[in-house]
From TrEMBL, chain A:
Lineage, broadest ranks: Bacteria, Bacillati, Bacillota, Bacilli, Bacillales
InterPro entries: Cyt_c_assembly, Cyt_c_biogenesis_CcsA, Cyt_c_biogenesis_CcsA/CcmC
Membrane topology: Multi-pass membrane protein
Location within or outside the cell: Membrane
Protein name: Cytochrome c-type biogenesis protein CcsB
Segments crossing the lipid bilayer: 6-25, 46-68, 80-98, 103-122, 142-165, 177-201, 259-277, 305-326, 338-354, 366-390
Automatic annotation (TrEMBL), chain B:
GO cellular component terms, A-Z: membrane
InterPro entries: Cyt_c_bgen_Ccs1/CcsB/ResB, ResB-like_domain
Main location as per UniProt: membrane
Segments crossing the lipid bilayer: 67-85, 126-148, 216-238, 467-487
Entry keyword annotation includes Ribonucleoprotein: no
Region annotated Disordered, chain positions: 529-550
An example Gene Ontology biological process: cytochrome complex assembly
Cross-referenced PANTHER family: CYTOCHROME C BIOGENESIS PROTEIN CCS1, CHLOROPLASTIC (PTHR31566:SF0)
Keyword Transmembrane attributed: yes
Membrane topology: Multi-pass membrane protein
Intracellular or extracellular location(s): Membrane
The name this protein goes by in its record: Cytochrome c biogenesis protein
Comp. bias intervals (Basic and acidic residues): 540-550
């Protein structure tokens, strides 16, 4: 086995460990009839042990991949997103050590699993660094950011648990709708993973020629049956599914096709869940939060932002500015990724001021923490893939 | 307004909520609260006290957290709006008209509206800069409004507080004690790194007060940072120039008086996927080519200060250097960055002056496309005169040829050819693959013979004297944030009352779990009465009431 094989096997081990740990945490929460810490302690211990094993395996993946590529493995979508999954679990382990809450693991681990699965849909071969990335600042800047985002995401998980407990599932309300919308969007990510995996396993490929937005002829490979066609497309693969609709040049029809497939498959999955269980997902999860201490969830929510915010400022703004000054001659250039890092920073600054200055705690804080995670995910997914800029890789 | 005199006899400035000395609530509203509002220690803040003059009103506006958060949220939304379409600096157009046309051409009516609203240059718009300015004012005023009274209050705090103050704290314990209780509590608290002061029958234990200054320190950092950004608009603080330099060329560095740069050559390397790089083979196959290095080898010269202007003979060589991406060349406060390149740029073009009918040549000429001569003398007294040169010919406007850029990408020449056969001269306009004869048919033509090419490097010349100020601002900000967030200000007040019973109150600015952990240890060691969390009690009560109602 080469080092590269060991590396990817370690990632599988981590993935499976997180998967098992999710269920053990679920069991610990479910089996906790008395509502005391002691009664979930035994299974909680087993679950956190499995989680730590998974985390160490993933750390092993990270280190061995660093050895293989010769640079910090955070240089493309696959590597960065995988690392985000790892820091999310790392952040959880820290907060579990502080607060011992099994229910947090039951929510964080599936999210980490989804993130790692999402990452695996991107090309994962080791890739060389372009000149702009050839510096130690790559490791310094990106690792700091990914750690900060992992910790900040824990606040969203705590917020989500808080909301699952307090939002009344029997009464129609905005809160109930939006909480379920969050669950639905998580299922959509699953839809993307399922679709992508299916077409990868069946080796679907179709090439098209098209005219890009600058009027130049280009080529594109679709890995899913093309629902939308690129501007003035011409099929180059025999028997390929003919696009139903042609898009104007500024719309990347290939990406739009992927999005639509994910939404369709995700929605079907969601509909199936609703049909089989006859309940909203948040309603199904609510019983798990029966013994949740709301004060504690609020504290975890706030505490993870307090720990994460300074790290985020350091990594995503200060280190970023230092590197930008070295690589691009200016510390700030209003590149979309920079702007969204600033938006994230301002958002958490607003959270802190609302909390300290206006007493926004509890449910309001929980909603804000969840929105913060949405902004982080937007910066990771949409800004990289949709809004073109200096940071768009993969 | 009058000073507020507390029952304990202390004179408090008007607007005070909790007596500075004993902590008694000073107004009715505060007296009726179950828990004291400890955010600013109940001190008199200017913004909560005065509201008469226009200055009071402005002060109160900017000191409000609500307004501050409002500004943050508006800025956040505005910043996000600017990322919907690319900003003008990322658009491949230079003139205002071209930029406007680009948005319409590429993005249709959305682009037109975006441009019309000024969102293509949103971050330089007066309203965006105005918002940042308002944020800066808010940072200063809101900090002063809170810091000054808070500092005074914490500096002068007394050990003994009135029981009404203590009973309004979130953490409260009451119960029997003995003669040893206070001493033992003091022991354990000192153990836990609390600073303990005692007065008669009471003690005050305090830890991490400096964390209370964190917000003000980080705000100072932000203000210094914004001040640094503002300074860049002053002349002399900031240089941002582009220098295109070709292989073998020597040019003065713009905005760096006395410095001259020579380019030895530009190098572009790509990954081969062989040998050491074999592991990258798969990735390279997928994306085609991947750049490995962009590099310009340069020599820096300095012109002595006593040299005559334009005299380049006495240049002194300063340094040879390789400029690469991520490795700018720094000298004397300037930095040169490898930003762009143009491979195989046209260097010269050669032509032969030929008789169209016979094909007979009157000789060849070579035109330097960067510094063309005006007269080219050939055999037999034939002359080609260069009447006009358009390095990047882009078409005619009012009959005049135009050039889009000064770079020789698509050269056009307006020439006058004089030979013994045609002594009056013939005029011709020549571009690549096309010749126009504006004044009628000519007998002679310039036949294209060949080109020479070379690489050119696009370097950015930068001087930014505000960087140390920005760095200082960033450092102070980080210190302030860490100070405020990674440390907590915890306090316990313990009093032994006349009957020997113990009254204990605890407060922290955050992380109540940490405070309780400390208190658990003290309680065990000194056998203190069990404490309760009054906020949790209140919430539990509310919940019970809520359940009864439904």
């Amino acid at each position: 086995m080469t080092l590269a094989d060991i590396s990817s096997n370690l990632l599988y081990v981590a993935f499976i460990a997180y998967l098992i740990a999710t269920f053990v945490f679920g069991g610990a929460v479910k089996g906790n009839k008395k509502g005391t810490y002691r009664s979930e302690e035994r299974w909680g211990k087993v679950a956190i042990t499995i989680t730590v094993i998974g985390f160490l395996a993933q750390l092993g993946y990270f280190i061995t991949r660093w050895m293989v590529t010769g640079h910090a493995p955070i240089s493309n979508m696959f590597e960065f997103t995988t690392a985000f999954g790892m820091t999310l679990v790392g952040g959880f382990i820290i907060l579990y050590a502080l607060y011992k809450t099994a229910v947090l693991g039951m929510i964080v681990l599936p999210i980490a699993l989804l993130i790692i699965a999402y990452a695996s849909m991107f090309p994962s071969e080791v890739s060389p660094l372009i000149p702009a990335l050839q510096t130690n600042w790559l490791a310094i800047h990106v690792i700091t950011v990914v750690i900060a985002e992992g910790i900040l995401a824990i606040s969203a998980a705590a917020g989500l648990i808080y909301l699952l407990k307090v939002v009344d599932q029997k009464k129609k309300s905005k809160q109930r709708f939006w909480l379920e919308a969050i669950m639905y969007s998580l299922v959509l990510v699953l839809g993307f993973v399922v679709t992508s995996t299916f077409f990868t396993l069946t080796n679907y490929e179709a090439d098209f020629a098209y005219v890009n937005k600058d009027g130049q002829p280009s080529e594109i490979t679709y890995n899913m049956p093309a629902i939308f066609g690129m501007n003035e497309f011409e099929p180059m693969t025999d028997g390929a599914f003919t696009p139903l609709l042609e898009m104007p040049p500024i719309v990347h029809a290939g990406k739009l096709t992927t999005v639509l497939w994910s939404v369709v498959v995700g929605t079907v999955l969601y509909a199936l869940i609703r049909l089989i269980f006859r309940k909203r997902i948040s309603e199904m999860l609510q019983p798990f939060t029966k013994n949740v201490n709301l004060q504690l969830m609020d504290e975890i929510n706030y505490r993870s932002i307090i720990i994460g915010f300074p790290i985020f400022s350091l990594g995503a703004l200060i280190f970023a500015m230092i590197w930008a000054q070295i690589a691009w001659s200016r510390f700030w250039g209003w590149d979309p990724k920079e702007v969204w890092a600033l938006v994230t920073f301002l958002f958490y600054a607003a959270y802190l001021h609302l909390r300290l200055g206006r007493g926004w705690a509890g449910e309001k804080s929980a909603w804000l923490a969840v929105i913060g995670f949405v902004i982080i995910m937007f910066n990771l997914v949409a800004v990289n893939l949709i809004i073109a800029g200096l940071h768009s890789y993969a | 307004m009058d000073k507020l005199i507390c029952k304990c006899g202390h004179e408090n400035p008007p607007g005070t909520v909790l007596c500075e000395s004993c902590g008694r609530p000073l107004n009715e509203q505060e007296q009726n609260k179950q828990l004291a509002d400890m955010r600013y220690e109940g001190t008199a803040r200017r913004s909560q006290t005065y509201n008469k003059s226009i200055i009071d009103k402005i002060w109160n506006f900017f000191s409000s957290v609500k307004v501050g958060v409002g500004i943050i949220v508006v800025l956040l939304i505005a910043a996000a709006l600017g990322t919907i379409l690319p900003q003008k600096q990322y658009v491949p157009a230079t003139t205002e008209a071209d930029i406007e046309a680009y948005y319409t051409d590429i993005y249709g009516s959305v682009g037109t509206v975006y441009h019309a609203l000024g969102f293509h240059d949103l971050y330089n718009s007066f309203w965006f800069i105005g918002l940042v300015g308002m944020l800066a004012i808010s940072l200063i005023i809101a900090s002063l409004d809170r810091f000054v009274p808070l500092y005074k209050s914490l500096k002068n705090q007394r050990v003994l507080r009135h029981s009404s103050f203590m009973r309004k704290q979130r953490i409260l314990a009451e119960g029997p004690g003995d003669a040893e209780t206070l001493k033992k509590a003091e022991e354990k608290l000192t153990d836990l790194k609390y600073k303990v002061s005692t007065d008669k029958n009471g003690l005050l234990a305090e830890k991490g007060r400096f964390s209370r200054w964190g917000p003000y320190v980080n705000h100072i950092g932000l203000i210094i940072f914004l001040f640094g950004v503002m300074l860049r608009m002053m002349p002399g603080f900031y240089v941002d120039e582009t220098l295109w330099i070709r292989e073998g060329e020597t040019r003065a560095i713009p905005d760096a008086p006395g410095y001259v740069l020579e380019s030895k050559g530009f190098t572009l390397e790509t990954y081969t996927g062989e040998g050491e790089e074999e592991k990258f083979g798969e990735a390279i196959d997928r994306v085609g080519t991947v750049a490995k290095n962009y590099q310009t080898d340069v020599v820096l010269y300095k012109i002595p200060e006593d040299a005559l202007p334009g005299d380049t003979d006495e240049m002194e060589k300063v340094e040879e250097h390789a400029i690469r991406v991520n490795q700018p060349f720094k000298f004397d406060g300037y930095a040169l960055y490898q930003m762009d390149f143009q491979q195989d740029e046209l260097k010269t073009m050669s032509f032969a002056l030929q008789n169209k009918e016979t094909g007979e040549s009157r000789g060849e000429l070579t035109i330097d496309l960067v510094n063309p001569e005006t007269n080219y003398e050939l055999e037999d007294g034939s002359v080609v005169e260069l009447l006009g040169y358009y390095p990047d010919f882009s078409g005619f406007e009012n009959g005049e040829p135009q050039t889009a850029t000064p770079l020789p990408k698509n050269p056009g020449f307006l020439v006058k050819m004089t030979t013994p056969d045609t002594p009056d001269g013939e005029t011709s306009f020549i571009t690549i693959q096309n010749t126009v004869e504006p004044l009628g048919d000519n007998d002679y033509k310039l036949a294209f013979q060949g080109v020479e090419t070379r690489d050119a490097s696009g370097l950015t010349v930068r001087k930014d004297r505000t960087l140390p100020i920005l760095g200082l601002g960033g450092l102070i900000f980080m210190i302030g944030v860490a100070q405020g967030m990674y440390f907590n200000h915890r306090r316990f007040w313990i009093q032994q009352q006349a009957d020997g019973s113990i009254l204990l109150a605890g407060h922290t600015n955050k992380n109540w779990f940490g405070l309780k952990k400390d208190l658990d240890q003290v309680t065990e060691h000194a056998s203190l009465p069990a404490y309760r969390d009054q906020q949790e009690d209140m919430e539990a009560q509310e919940k019970r009431e809520g359940e009864q109602l439904t």
